[in-house]
Amino acid sequence: MEHLQLRIKDIRQETTISKSYFIEEVNGRNIQYKAGQFLTLLVDLHGKEVRRSYSISSTPGVDDTIFFTIKRIENGELSRYLFDELKAGDIITSLPPTGRFTIDRPESELAVFISAGSGITPVFSLIKQLLYQFREVKVLLIYQNHNESESIFGKELLLLQQKFATRFTLKEIFSQPIDQNKRSQRLNNNLLERILLEQIKSSSVAFYLCGPEPFMRMAEFTLKVMKYRHEVIRRENFFASAPPPPFMTDHTPHRVTINYQNSRHELEVAYPQTILQVALHHKIHLPYSCRGGRCSTCTARCTSGKVKMSINDVLTPKDLQEGLILTCVAYPETDVELTYEMVEPEEGIQ
Ligand SMILES: Cc1cc2nc3c(=O)[nH]c(=O)nc-3n(C[C@H](O)[C@H](O)[C@H](O)COP(=O)(O)OP(=O)(O)OC[C@H]3O[C@@H](n4cnc5c(N)ncnc54)[C@H](O)[C@@H]3O)c2cc1C
Ligand code: FES
Fold first, then answer.
1. Taking a C-beta distance cutoff of 8 angstroms, is the pair 31, 97 a contact?
2. 304: which of 26, 30, 108, 295 lies 20 to 30 Å off by Cα?
3. Is 329 exposed, middle or buried (0-12, 13-18, 19+ CB in 10 A)?
């Protein structure tokens, strides 16, 4: 996968601990992406390559310049470094945009986004896409923050609410609001259910979740209790730790054939190693980021054979039916053949 060289054109402070980085490719080429996708930055930190993904918050066809937003994590290895050190003019290396938290065609009359903190970054991009490019869709955003000053894109969301008053409903929830007239609330099962019952009038609804893991679990549980089907709930998970290998009795090596960038590679992969681990060990530079089955950067298509995945938070039932797998958490159960395809942005998208 060809790496991008990105120049930081401008930096905007969003909150005390988050900044947006406006970028361009150094060779002047357009960066092809879809709303909701992310970049995976490759940074040399003290002689070691560190990879982290950052969602693109701009929207193709709506925003002129691509930007992503980083929240500084206290003790975070890369976010702290980037937040403190990155300045306009710097050049950073990235994998091309990827990710499956995207909307090719609206899936419902109402799109409900449930987000908290920095989880707003891909959501902001998708909301703009729906509001500007799919006029038939209504949007509800339920957005939890500590207070108004920590609300990333808080002002922009209020402007969108004014501009699309009949189609966009914004429910901001603050646990410790600065404005004394606002209620102090935390999104929990009861509050979320109340808001959804009050706001959802159509049976044609799709949900998009992005926020801290416990927040997403709470939201998903509430939706399940409310009898919404798994297929109408999409999630983007920022934080991943590598899951343990699944239970498998077959520890014999299987042949894995990988078709990547016009080359064909043959490997032997045996439990408890994943396909990605063995490929990287053999210096086959396949794409990856989180290594925890959460981001989808490592997605390949399994054209023959069978694999077992220890976790899958990103591939939909349709993706699985089409043979997509996450190589970072995939263990071959038979000999398998894999191909990699670049995700083609839709026509007309910059
Ligand atoms: C698909 C995808 C998109 C992402 N998009 C964004 C984005 O748009 N903006 C953004 O800021 N981050 C985003 N992230 C998260 C980002 O990739 C890093 O994980 C994050 O910046 C922390 O990296 P770090 O090296 O600073 O922390 P690490 O050194 O990796 O982690 C240090 C500790 O902090 C914990 N931690 C990590 N993140 C958080 C958090 N947010 N809150 C509390 N604890 C945390 C870790 O579990 C760990 O214990 C995204 C991740 C994925 C997979
Ligand atoms: S590298 Fe993130 S899902 Fe595999």
1. yes
2. 295
3. buried
Q: Taking phi first (over 0 means left), then psi (-120 to 50 degrees means alpha), and beta for anything else, what does residue 153 get?
A: left
How far, in Å, from the CA of 71 to the mean position of ligand 1? 8
> What is the extent of the structural domain holding 219?
110-236
Q: Hey, which of 297, 309, 331, 340 would you mutate to test ligand 2's pocket, going by the most ligand atoms within 8 Å of its Cβ?
A: 297
Q: What are 31-73's pLDDT values in tens digits?
A: 999 999 999 999 999 899 999 999 999 999 999 999 999 999 9
Same domain, 178 and 283: no
Q: Give the span between the Cα atoms of 119 and 99, in whole angstroms.
A: 15
Tokens of 267: 């490997």
Q: Which pLDDT belongs to residue 316?
A: 85
The structural domain count of the chain equals: 3
Structure pTM?
Answer: 0.90
The CATH number given to whatever domain includes residue 288 is: 3.10.20.30
Shortest-distance ligand to the CA of residue 243: 2
pLDDT value of position 240: 67
Q: How far is the CA of 213 from the centre of ligand 1 (A)?
A: 11
